[in-house]
Amino acid sequence: MAAANLTFGGWYIAWRWTHSLNLDAPWFSIPMAACETLAYFGLFLFTANLWKSGEPCAGSPPITIQNCDPEAPADRPISVDVFIATYNEDEELVRLSIRDAKRLRYPHPIDLQVHVLDDGRRQTMRKVCDEEGVGYITRTNNLGYKAGNLRNAMELTSGDFIVICDADTRLFPGFVEHTLGYFRDPQVAFVQTPQWFYDIPEGVRLRDHWGRKAGAIGRISGGLIERLVGEIRVGEDPFANDPKMFYDVIMRRRNWANAVFCCGAASIHRREAVMYAAVRAYAAAVHRETDRANKVTRRLTGEARLAPELSDYLGIDAAVATELTPYKFHVSEDIYTSLVLHQDRERGWKSLLHPQVESKMLSPQDLLSWTIQRFKYAGGSLDILFHSDVMFGPGLTFWQRVMYGATFWGYLGAVWNLAFLAAPIVYLCFGIAPVAAYTGDFFIHLLPFLITNELAFMFGTWGVAGYKGKTSYLASFPISLRALWAVLSKQTIKFPVTPKDRQEGNHLALVWPQTAVMVASFVAIAVCAVRLALGHQGFTLGGLLANAIWALYNCLIMSVMVSAAFWKPPAEDEPVRTPAKLEEAR
């Protein structure tokens, strides 16, 4: 189906450029064809990502360190540091994560230490650590945000492996037992496990929801609809937080290409790999800074070649001024560090996605928290793409570039998504079409592409609801556009902590672009219908039907995000989220 989809897509794109451009409005038709071509290229990348799966073999839990590193100087038990990074989260929430980390089991002797990395420098947090008998690590500044926090902890610990947790990461007892087996391969640098949000609203059945609103009639009507189309849940996962599509499909099918990137929490890292990559990056940075200082000095002195003593001094100065950063000081330190590790052809570091959920954590429960998180993801990824050389520098394999490229391309998609949202409105209001005519030839070329696209997506993601991901991707275009503008204008992408508690109130101001698209679409449909009825030139019935369906589809997608701005849990379904209630619920 994917091959058929790409074939029909190529046929459609070729026809668009050669037979269907609206030469009366090239300023509109050509950019639209270009946007369709860019989207089609993204389809190639996404299809390549889904094309092949390769399941890793974990092996049995290693007994000693020499099972993971044959060159280890002594055959001793494995040592593991669990880092729980926190800044301003509630201390009792962190306590729950501490207690779960202390319950980690392992079938062989192991040196397991739990450390809380407190960038908030709170005495109350220190007291919790003392009460729970775990390590407390802090620092005098917040340089480098989470990456700096992790670096500081690495300087003060010595475990062979590091488990990274956020304040709300609740590790299952088998986390270490089920993941350390991968490290029997001495080239495995880190293993990412799927993140599971255990507080995602389950919603209520349509029949029950309508029954509350309209009594027996509503319940019967809702039941009949569900008999026809299957179970429908109102209020289910309103922010499309469920990460199954990302982990179970997208990331899992990157194992074969060695292109799985770290997603921060719920991952385990080989300390040697992180430090090895850091030293290589440090040496490269010192070399670049020394070359720059040499060029500046030669330009100032007019000398063609500097004295060896002066060159050595400039090198030492660059070495002192450059930070050694095991985790890159970056808002997306996880994906950045993954790229640096994958660039290292000399050691050939590997990364893997463990297929089973080994922890649980909290998800954003309001649109403001969700927006903060998604802007951070988009801004960090785009900053790597435009302002670093890790993506296009030497070291990555072809397939690694394809997989990482699919990730970055997805955030750029907001540009052509905006064009796809605007195109039907332009036709419906002004009668200006992106194609020469909405004739049978147009539908003959377009419909096979759209149908095979839906079928291929369904088969390629079988068992996972794909519509939520597509809805989130299209409706979140303002976030990606704002992130793109911030990166291109070289604004600093900040690292705000995603709130762990629900932010009260509605957040309509966050969805004004989606609301504007919906209003403009409905107005445009009415305008076109009136003009067509009045016989105005430039409007056709085929054009009205095609663009009205397109605009209504866009409105349906936008409505999901707009409704999320007003969403709040029903009183009887309010999730247990406060630290006291979380402890009570245990």
Describe the structure.
- The chain has 19 helices and 11 strands.
- With 586 residues, it is α/β, with parallel strands linked by helices.
- Strand 2 (110-118), helix 4 (123-132) and strand 3 form a beta-alpha-beta unit.
- Helix 3 runs parallel beside helix 19.
- Residues 573-580 have low confidence and may be disordered.
Shape: globular
Radius of gyration: 27 Å
Strand line-up in the sheet with most strands: 3-2-1-4-9-6-10
Distance between termini? 46 Å
Q: Kindly state the mean pLDDT as a whole number?
A: 88
* Oligomeric description of these chains: single chain
SS-based structural class? alpha/beta
Ranges where pLDDT stays below 50 over 5 or more residues in a row are 573-580
Helicity range of the residues? 40-55%
Number of strands: 11
Helix segment tally = 19
Give the biggest beta sheet.
Answer: 7 strands, mixed
**N-to-C series of helices and strands:** HHEHEHEHEEHEEHEHEHHHEEHHHHHHHH
Beta-strand portion reads 5-15%
In short:
This protein is α/β, with parallel strands linked by helices. The protein has 19 helices and 11 strands.
Question: What are its keywords?
Answer:
alpha/beta
What layout of secondary structure does this protein have?
Layout lengths: L1 H18 L6 H25 L27 E9 L4 H12 L7 E9 L4 H10 L2 E3 L7 H12 L4 E6 L3 E2 L3 H5 L8 E5 L11 E2 H24 L3 E2 L9 H8 L15 E4 H31 L6 H14 L11 H11 L6 E4 L5 E2 L6 H21 L10 H33 L9 H21 L6 H9 L1 H12 L23 H22 L7 H26 L12 H7 L1
Parallel strand pairs: 1-2, 1-4, 2-3, 6-10
Antiparallel strand pairs: 4-9, 5-11, 6-9, 7-8
Helix pairs in contact: 1-2, 1-14, 2-13, 3-4, 3-19, 9-10, 12-13, 12-16, 13-16, 13-17, 13-18, 15-18, 17-18
